[in-house]
Amino acid sequence: MPIKSESRKRKVKREDVAQAAGVSSATVSYVLNGTKRLSPEVEKRVLEAARQLNYCPDFHARALAGSKSYTLGLLTTDIANTYQLEVIKGLQSEALKYDYVVIVFDAFGDTERYIDSLISRRVDGIFVSIAPDSLPDESLCKLRDADIRVLAEFARNSFLPDVSYVMYDHSDGLVQAVRYLKELGHSKIGFLSAFDEGYLYDKRLPGFHRAMEEVIGEKDPAIVYGSSPYFTSEEFGGTLMQRMMEEHPEVTAVIATNDLMAIGAIKAIKKAGKRVPEDYSVCGIDNIQLSRLCDPPLTTLDQNGREYGMKIFHILYDSISAHKAGEYILPMQLLVRGSTGPVRGA
Amino acid sequence: MPIKSESRKRKVKREDVAQAAGVSSATVSYVLNGTKRLSPEVEKRVLEAARQLNYCPDFHARALAGSKSYTLGLLTTDIANTYQLEVIKGLQSEALKYDYVVIVFDAFGDTERYIDSLISRRVDGIFVSIAPDSLPDESLCKLRDADIRVLAEFARNSFLPDVSYVMYDHSDGLVQAVRYLKELGHSKIGFLSAFDEGYLYDKRLPGFHRAMEEVIGEKDPAIVYGSSPYFTSEEFGGTLMQRMMEEHPEVTAVIATNDLMAIGAIKAIKKAGKRVPEDYSVCGIDNIQLSRLCDPPLTTLDQNGREYGMKIFHILYDSISAHKAGEYILPMQLLVRGSTGPVRGA
DNA sequence: TTGTAAGCGTTATCAA
DNA sequence: TTGATAACGCTTACAA
Fold this sequence. Notes:
The structure is a homodimer. Chain A is built from 13 helices and twelve strands. By secondary structure, chain A is α/β, with parallel strands linked by helices. Chain A has a domain at 170-304: Rossmann fold (3-Layer(aba) Sandwich). In chain A, the strands form two sheets. Chain A has a six-stranded parallel sheet, sandwiched between helices. Chain A has a six-stranded mixed sheet with strand order 7-6-8-9-10-12, sandwiched between helices. In chain A, strand 6, helix 9 and strand 7 (223-224) form a beta-alpha-beta unit. Chain A is elongated, with a radius of gyration of 26 Å. The termini of chain A are far apart. In chain A, 44% of the residues are buried. Chains A and B meet through helix 4, helix 5, strand 2, helix 6 and helix 7 of A and helix 4, helix 5, strand 2, helix 6 and helix 7 of B. The structure holds a DNA duplex.
């Protein structure tokens, strides 16, 4: 049953609430924002009046008068990436609890334009999850100088002053993974990279190198590379795995640059008539939803996207309040599931 | 090389630009917004000054003073849905051309809270792509009464006054699909639905029913249903296809409720040792990216997500300018690719 | 504990 | 064609 359109009613503003509650308009502000403690009696009256009138404070007026816009920006390489999507959801849901809203941009459009839009809208903070090639340091500085707190995923070799960084401790994570594989008897461990050999900003492959050298004493492990333009998919993981099996038959365990590719690798192994984990152990990185559901469930380095997103919000939130930058290293944890097992023939 | 943080400079405002250009601040407004035509000489001076000072108009001040907020809302069932993602991208990219920004919410959170947030932020318009169960008509009315243009995907049986609707002409689309399959010799055509038998808001299955009756004269075609809570995935499409093969061995062609499930169906058919399209013809709905890449490429009813998103923006934009509602029916087009062929044994 | 009033940076309406 | 100036709805000293 359709609901009739009401006559265009004048917007209810703070003054109206004040009148209804029999107080001044400032008092309404204090109560609603919790800026000052007032007598519980007045408080109740105001709250009641606001509810009755269905009062919705005007966000723009608030942003103009105050210093915060209650808006966050997110610059990501690709919205469609499964992992990013979970990060976005985590960030969003946590943000909403604090009355924040997130504006999401991906790197396919005119990034300069995004930046200006974000500055115009005076977002309080922005999370940058994008390779430096797609967004130069200058842009980050522009944001920072517009008094926006910037939090970037660390993927460079230098830090910008007054910019915050987060990074996962991939190095430690990969040591955990390699050490665990070693315990299972593996020594020929390969790596499936999404990037090509010259790619500078990946932190996972170098972590693998270090881990292999430290834990196994192997300076030249088997690696299969992707190529630019970089992308990630099950299919692609399968392709790389096929190459790995052909070019490095001695390998008994592989670590993939991310879960999606690891899942593709498992499929390729099965397709080749081999079994996981009996013939090949496979380990991913990310812990996406799907990694628990695939067959066999994937052993992976946990970097729970949803939680990550939530954490990102709080880092940003704190840095907005405290008005300062910091560096954050987040630990990774090896999640052992069914895709890894003793080396074949053991 | 790190770039030094500049000393906290005072924000440049319109007055500064006016001074630099030697005109009044109103003049700056006129030039920058194109509200009035001024002498080209003055225009040039203002533009130049704005560029030099790197002037970024304050969005909130503009929204407060003017009537538009240059912000759109999008309520979707699930961001992670491949098709939705393309719609979002199309909407976003088109919006940005007009200085608009889109705030995206999915249906998993507290929708009441979303609504209030959107009203507070005085978005100019909102696109609702969500089943009525997740968002009652009352919420749409609340938005509408807050003077927000509402555009909803039509999935109900009644229209709300002053609310706009879009819908694809699924009925006609499915007639096209069934007619084409008939030409190939198929008469036993099945349907894979994502929903259960009692689901009211789906427009695809009823379209299929009508098409089967009109084109083939079949009143009781083979249908396999999903169940609540509704979701969509390749796996699920495979499961339904398996059931279809077992329960309705006479069927030679299937139409799936969307491409992703159709792709899953193809995989299930292959897994069962049959071939597409030799043994089974498969047709999807949506035309997602993947549908062109799968093997064989999927015949589908085109409803290009990206273009759809762009169209949505313009409908919303026009209805914001004209301040009125409308109803829009978008045509679908059958895209014949490799997953359909002559009936088996023909 | 509560109220008054001065901004916040625009747009828009007049008057010049 | 331009320039003052009053909103816009809120926050927040500061005064009462």
